[in-house]
Fold:
Amino acid sequence: MLFSGTLAILSVEASSLLSASEGETITICPLCETKVANMRYHMGLHILRALNNIPEDINMKQLVSDVSLCGFCGHSGHPDCVITITIKNTATSNAPTQWNTKCVYQHGFHYSFAEQGSKHKPVHNVPLKCELCHPVLPPKPGKSSHRVPTVAINAIWRYNMVEHVLNDHEEYCVPGHRAGGVPMPLGVLKTMQLTELEQASANIPQEKWQLFSIPGDGHDKENMAPSTSHASKRSAPSITAPRASKKTRTNLANAHSAVSLCA
Ligand SMILES: [Zn+2]
Ligand SMILES: [Zn+2]
Ligand SMILES: [Zn+2]
Ligand SMILES: [Zn+2]
Structure:
């Protein structure tokens, strides 16, 4: 991962406001050459399919590689695509107030909507703070108002978080990717979690969906994928496929389901 953990000074004129309106310009996708109104959303689906080896229905002019993928253009390792986020106080908060990249395919989007994912645009690939690179610290006793200067930190797109932890935080277990190691803090696990709806939107078959779920996460309720007759007719789910049906998933939706995969 590029430059993780380094700090950069915020460049005000180059940064994009998080509240900028979404998808106003039509752009040609650099990968499939389709006209696209919301590149972050469109590219998110390409990336999800690439990460899960799902073939595209359309002819791809360029294929998505599998490392450090820019959430706007899908390119890998392009210096212009480094993205930073500005957080008022990185020691106490994860919520960015601004993001900044030089990617030519960037466009404004409503961060908090995109971060949640919506029914119609479930892709919730947004630039995030990695809590392992930038831990949230409890305020020091008697120094609760300690001010940390506002700086931009290098951000990780959600869909790159698995790769980032695999490469840059080798001591942690990554459910479905690396057994053994220390269980990740729940906050970090959450940044990797995909909703059922976005996995369904990318045509990822249910048997390949993520195997972990996290308690107290509103995503699943709001973004429940429409159940297909295929899914409801499935035979009794086995313990090795905890997300094979909604019933099983709910039963396993506790901290253990994530942590036990790290045994
Ligand atoms: Zn495309
Ligand atoms: Zn690019
Ligand atoms: Zn880019
Ligand atoms: Zn990190």
